[in-house]
């Protein structure tokens, strides 16, 4: 699984991730699990190719990932998968464990605001390589 790559198209979503990502327990759990403090937002990617969808399905089913367990059961659990973003930036894919979560949506987190760091915007393409 390590070394698998996917490419997706950047898009803006509802903006709900930023309030979740700013919660103290979320920041602590991610810092403890991933080894970095993430910027309090996600970069959304839409997978548009059959190949990218197949690789993402493999990753979700075959890689354990890092569990993020909420202290309050009213929040959802999540799994994270370490990635290298565009061969330049360490980060992770955050997969909320909620029913009906879009199969072609990937949320990326990193210690920096990725749109600024990579100089990208909605409609651009980003490639992720799973590293662990």
In short:
The chain has helices at 16-21, 24-34, 50-62, 114-118; strands spanning 5-11, 43-46, 66-68, 78-85, 89-96, 105-109, 125-130. With 132 residues, it is α+β, with helices and mostly antiparallel strands. Strands 1-2-6-5-4-7 form a six-stranded antiparallel β-barrel.
Characterization of this structure:
This protein is α+β, with helices and mostly antiparallel strands. It has four helices and seven strands, in the order βααβαββββαβ. It has helices at residues 16-21, 24-34, 50-62, 114-118; strands at 5-11, 43-46, 66-68, 78-85, 89-96, 105-109, 125-130. It has a six-stranded antiparallel beta barrel with strand order 1-2-6-5-4-7. Strand 4 and strand 5 form a beta hairpin. The radius of gyration is 14 Å and the shape is globular. The termini are close together.
Annotation keywords:
132 residues; alpha+beta; 4 helices
What secondary-structure arrangement, pairings included, does this model have?
Layout: E1 5-11, H1 16-21, H2 24-34, E2 43-46, H3 50-62, E3 66-68, E4 78-85, E5 89-96, E6 105-109, H4 114-118, E7 125-130
Antiparallel strand pairs: 1-2, 1-7, 2-6, 3-4, 4-5, 4-7, 5-6
Question: What fraction strand?
Answer: 25-35%
The helix-strand sequence is: EHHEHEEEEHE
| Stretches with pLDDT under 50, minimum 5 residues | none
What's the count of strands?
A: 7
| Radius of gyration based on Cα positions | 14 Å
Strand count, sense and barrel status of the largest sheet are:
6 strands, antiparallel, barrel
The separation of the N and C termini measures: 8 Å
What is the average per-residue confidence, as pLDDT, rounded to a whole number? 91
Number of helical segments with 4 or more residues? 4
User: Which class of secondary structure composition applies to the elements?
Assistant: alpha+beta
Q: What does the overall shape look like?
A: globular
Estimate percent helicity.
25-40%
Give the strand order, joined by hyphens, for the main sheet: 1-2-6-5-4-7
